[in-house]
Specification:
The protein has 159 residues and is of the alpha+beta class. The chain has helices at residues 3-10, 16-23, 27-39, 77-84, 110-121, and strands at residues 60-68, 89-94, 101-107, 127-134, 140-141, 144-145. It folds into two domains: 3-39, Arc Repressor Mutant, subunit A (Orthogonal Bundle); 52-141, Lrp/AsnC effector binding domain/regulation of amino acid metabolism (RAM) domain (Alpha-Beta Plaits). Strands 2-3-1-4 form a four-stranded antiparallel β-sheet. A two-stranded antiparallel sheet has the order 5-6. The termini are far apart.
């Protein structure tokens, strides 16, 4: 992988001057290369990894296993792209194994997510079945460990 892309994927908040110093490039060279990566869609966007437990908002996330029938001439792509366009969908991946797509969904409460699955997702032509798993807690998100309060790992000693 290109060293500049590696730096951007690890911490896009680094300044061009800092990245240039780390890679023996000028700030202008870094800016130009980043601009080119964005233009050719190698870099699609920048996102901060948020610790949801620290935010004052209640969101429900679910991972949904979806079995679908591939379409003639389009395979899984057409239906997967259609599912990915829903606002509730955070990510959608073609998988190998017991199901075809893994869809990550976000909603304001359990009912919102359940409604999305029962009214929008499962009713699409080509969707054979769904299995929904609600996320209870994240321990690692996009390669970043979520720092939860340390808990006592030793068992209490009793007489």
């Amino acid at each position: 992988m290109d060293p500049l892309l590696k730096l951007l994927s690890e911490d896009a908040a680094l300044s061009p001057a800092t990245m240039g110093a780390m890679l023996n490039l000028t700030e202008a060279e870094v800016r130009e290369r980043v601009k080119q990566f964005e233009a050719d869609r190698t870099v699609l966007g920048y996102r901060a990894v948020l610790n949801e437990e620290k935010l004052d908002r209640d969101l429900v996330r679910a991972l949904i296993e979806v079995r679908i029938t591939p379409e003639r001439g389009g395979g899984f792509d057409k239906l997967a792209e259609r599912i990915a366009k829903y606002a509730e969908v955070r990510s959608c991946h073609l998988m190998s194994g017991g199901y075809d797509l893994l869809v990550e969904v976000e909603g304001t409460n359990l009912r919102t997510v359940a409604s999305f699955v029962s009214e929008k997702l499962s009713t699409l032509q080509g969707v054979l079945s769904t299995a929904t798993h609600f996320v209870l807690r994240a321990y690692k998100e996009q390669g970043v460990l979520m720092q939860h309060q340390e808990t006592e790992s030793r068992l209490a000693i009793t007489p």
